[in-house]
């Protein structure tokens, strides 16, 4: 895949990021998190946009995991009734961190200039599988805290995990945009 025309121009990159974010489930969050990269040299094409989106999601998942580790230790020491739910949620977020890390490594293995090979689709499927699993884990964690009436601590955890789920959903959507180009090209082959 050739580099997009917007690779050298910050304004064009900003437009590219905005147009891409508008196709995600949480466009405002997408723009908030990715627009800061319009002036950097990190985003030149759809693959790099997906890479940055996954990295942002991973960073947020790691931050949330650190927060939850601290809370879980405090709850365990107090033998609080919330501890099992927080422990289970923490495990889900730890799984998300691993899966997002794997997806980023796998995306780096995709070489657009290598052409259409079966390996490309193997890598694409791996990324989609790991990001989808990370999204599922974060969503299950959110489900550990049902309802609206909850303690400040539970509400804070739910908010942080929901943010991870939304960022991961956006990253998956941006990766799907990137992968769709390969699928479309494969469908045109005789």
From TrEMBL:
Highest taxon of the lineage: Eukaryota
Keyword terms of this UniProt record: Apoplast, Disulfide bond, Secreted, Signal
Family annotation (InterPro entries): Invertase/methylesterase_inhib (IPR035513), Pectinesterase_inhib_dom (IPR006501), PME_Inhibitor (IPR051955)
Principal localisation: secreted
Alphabetized GO MF terms: enzyme inhibitor activity
GO CC entries: apoplast
Pectinesterase inhibitor domain ranges (all copies): 12-174
Localization per Swiss-Prot or TrEMBL: Secreted, Extracellular space, Apoplast
Pfam families with a match to the protein in the record: PMEI
UniProt family annotation: Belongs to the PMEI family.
Protein name: Pectinesterase inhibitor
Species assigned in the record: Corchorus capsularis
